[in-house]
């Protein structure tokens, strides 16, 4: 492992510790656009603090409100770059199963035309 990667991981771990101590009832989430996504804009902010009981479906609604989508487009969330979770799963459940060793839960978003 590169020294720079170790330093970045340590920095992120420290950031999560600070966040969790200030906001113990919130989960640190990082949401980024999928690398191959060309239609959706980048989010203004990529870091979110969400309550444990918020569902994936509710979080998806929050993201949809931040991204202007056409009615023919869907918004998909990938957890840790590879998993799609149930819309009824709580963020607490997803966080406990898929969080990164640095303490953040990483999600990526993408669109897909529904009618063509």
From TrEMBL:
Classification via SUPFAM superfamilies: Ubiquitin-like (SSF54236)
Membrane topology (UniProt): Lipid-anchor
Lipidation (Phosphatidylserine amidated glycine): 116
Keywords: Autophagy, Cytoplasm, Cytoplasmic vesicle, Lipoprotein, Membrane
GO BP, sorted A to Z: macroautophagy; response to stress
Family per record: Belongs to the ATG8 family.
Protein known as: Microtubule-associated proteins 1A/1B light chain 3C isoform X2
């Amino acid at each position: 492992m590169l020294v720079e990667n170790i330093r970045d991981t340590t920095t992120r771990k420290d950031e999560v510790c600070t966040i969790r101590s200030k906001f113990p009832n919130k989960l640190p989430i990082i949401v980024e656009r999928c690398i191959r996504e060309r239609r959706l804009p980048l989010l203004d902010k990529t870091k979110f603090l969400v309550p444990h009981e918020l569902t994936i479906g509710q979080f998806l609604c929050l993201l949809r409100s931040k991204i202007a989508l056409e009615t023919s487009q869907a918004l998909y969330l990938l957890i840790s770059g590879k998993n799609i979770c149930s819309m009824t799963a709580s963020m607490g459940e997803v966080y406990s199963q898929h969080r990164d060793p640095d303490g953040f839960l990483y999600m990526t978003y993408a669109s897909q035309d529904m009618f063509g």
